[in-house]
Amino acid sequence: MDDRLIDSDRLTLERRSLLPGEGFFYPDSLQQERAEQEAVTAFAEADTVVIADPDADGLACVALVRAAHGEGALVSASPHNIDEALTQVSEYGTGTRVYVCDLCPDSPADIEALPAAVEAASSLTWYDHHQWDAELTDRVRTAGAELVVGESDVVCSADVTLEELDATFDEQYTDLVAVTRDHDLWLREDDRSDDLADYAYWADEEAYIETVTEHGADLPADVQEMLAERRVEKSQLIKKAVERARLREVGPWTVGVTYGRCSQNEVAEALREQGADAAVVVKPSGSASIRGTDSFERCHEVAAQVNGGGHPKAAGCKPDIYHDMLDYAHHWSTQGAVTKQTIIDGFRRLADETA
Questions:
Q1: pTM of the predicted model, to two decimals?
Q2: Cα 3 to Cα 9, 23, 284, distances in angstroms
């Protein structure tokens, strides 16, 4: 395939907002091969390894582990490939101290490799703050892992990590955790939290960890300058998604629904200001973010019906409806019509149960 076809820089803003980024078009097998090699290197170079979601919360956990132990190689993982990361522990992590941070399994299939991972590792500790199914909690603990799950609407995973690690941390780290929580729980009481979230999204993972380790939540001038430049396009993409949004009445709730490559939290906030109790932002990649408000705190229940999970006010999912590239072509050309309807059906079932 011609590289120009997936080069976002040559597209107009409108078309860029409708299509996924370049990385989407790389085969999973290529990404898995790359991840496998990175894991081999991580386990070979460090006695402590952190398997974490590479967002601001997960990366803050890595910074805390490194501060506590003097090392901590990162193995990036998402909720959909937890089992792959655990398999890597069983294959390459013999005698390694392992932490799993800011990740929650959606089904038993996500932790099939956990018993073997626990057997291989010198210890396996799991810190999280998502909504856990009781059966999965029991499975993790029965396998021999130490699991600590904080209250999802009170703390972030970095809070749990800070509390549980046997170490004394400088004020810089406690401040970092507080600002991370401010964004992760969508409190928005500290202006720095958006900076951390954007920097974690745009920067290389190691660059982010090194920066917050040195500067905490007060990002240096060169990073602030980079963020200002990148936010010009970010704001334009947010505007596009908000303009496409439609408010739908589902049972007792008003649900704002839109589509586009954008920052979902800011879009959700704009829809809340328009009267939405909940917001659904469908992405060109096929996934979707569900955001709630004080009048709707059941996002994780909707997501659980659509191959996902998360928190009462913030969840994510990816419906299992994409079977070939024609399905994706339909998704892009209809601005996610099938995915939107699938998630709205989840809201409707919840409304019927409530009634």
A1: 0.84
A2: 11, 12, 19
